[in-house]
Amino acid sequence: MKNIIIRYGIRSAISICALALAGWFLGQGLDYSIQEVIGYLGMVVSLLFVFFGIKHYRDKENNGIVAFGRALLIGVLITLIAALAFGILDVIYVKYINPDFMAEYYAHYVEQMKTSLPEAEFKIKLAELESQKELFSNIFMNFFLMFATVMIVGFIISLISALILQRKPTRSN
Question: Which InterPro entries does its entry note (predicted)?
């Protein structure tokens, strides 16, 4: 089981990093909301290795059977590897590759709020955003947010995969 988790976790980590980098560099001229959709799609595609890892374990390593709990555990552990890789990659991106990203995104978000909210509500939201600005520019918080995002999506995929792939031993009389 350990080898499968590592093998499929590394595959998922490589694909999530490759797709994120491709999205960041190829989607530079796109709106942030479109980039976000592309990012989530890349995340889901790379986390399909969760399904394939559980299936491989069931079919090749465990005689065609796997309990729901074991399948979920395998999926979550594969996701953990991908989440760690993505969190580290995001820190590298924000700190070294595109250090202006946070300021650019903040300015974009403020402008979007300004055009979509009434003046009084905009001032309230801007004050909230300003109070959170330092927290979200913290590199550890940035890592945690990206890590947690992948873990949440991966948990959902692990749950669905475990439900689909669970197979109990057949009883023979």
Answer: DUF4199
